[in-house]
Specification:
This protein has helices at residues 5-8, 15-27, 33-55, 66-77, 93-100, 158-173, 178-182, 188-203, 223-226, 247-257, 271-275, and strands spanning 58-59, 62-63, 152-153, 176-177, 207-212, 215-220, 283-284. By secondary structure, the chain is mainly alpha-helical. Strands 4-6-5 form a three-stranded antiparallel sheet. Strands 1-2 form a two-stranded antiparallel ribbon. The longest helix is centred in the N-terminal third of the chain and has 23 residues, at 33-55. The radius of gyration is 51 Å and the shape is elongated.
Length: 285
Amino acid sequence: MEANKSEWVKQHSTGLLDAVRQANALFENVSTTQEAYLDSRLLTSAARLSVVKVNNMKLSGRSLDIGDFLRRVRRALNPANNVDDDETDVLDWTRLHSVAGVTGFAVPTIDFMYGPLAVEPKARKEAKRNVARINKDLSQLQKPQQLKESDIQKQENETSKSVQKIMKVLQKKGPINFFEFVINPGSFSQSVENIFYVSFLIRDGHVSIDIEDGQPVLCPVKPSDSEGDESGASKKQQKQHIVELSYDSWKDIIETYGISETVIPTRAKSDEQAAGPAGKDKWYG
């Protein structure tokens, strides 16, 4: 269309009309969005060329005057009034419909209108918060507690002490089955703590785990072996394992290995824990 626009804007050329008719015929087979987009571009170009062609139109040897054309339309819609500039006359639009209606499609009517045409925006009211003022009695307020150095008790590192005690027990027992050593048949929580403490001994290289007949055996490591050359053959390869112990598996281990007594002595509650609420005024750091 762009290549033929100079020819199609001529007065006696029918190329523009033929192109629109061909586009209307092809539009019935449009099935994709891209094809509908191309059809809309064609109609936009056709409308632009139609405006150019109308502006070039000549009637009786002269170009079309839009103002004169509108005055003629006004006289046609109101034959009784011959004054062209009278803005108060009532025009009979049915006359225009009888002429123009047969050349174009009917304009779709509007069934619903969403509100009035002139809408004044309402001023937004700011909500005021009614906050009730609370009068506090200063005599009822409590000041933060002033701590002194004597109020803070230094808590000893129980973990290090427990690890050292377990190491002494293992050195006396010698190589022993892992589960028979750490399981306390009278306390599930202390069994978990025993595994936790033994893990420190294994990490630091004081204890090793050997597998004999598919069973894990704890063996104390001699100081000469643990302090050997890291690059030597005496240095065993370290591996990490995760031990999971649930309450049901704890009971199964006790039944399977026939554990009736604990190898690691049961630890008593610390004085701080036994004191309970009585020591609530003390702080531990």
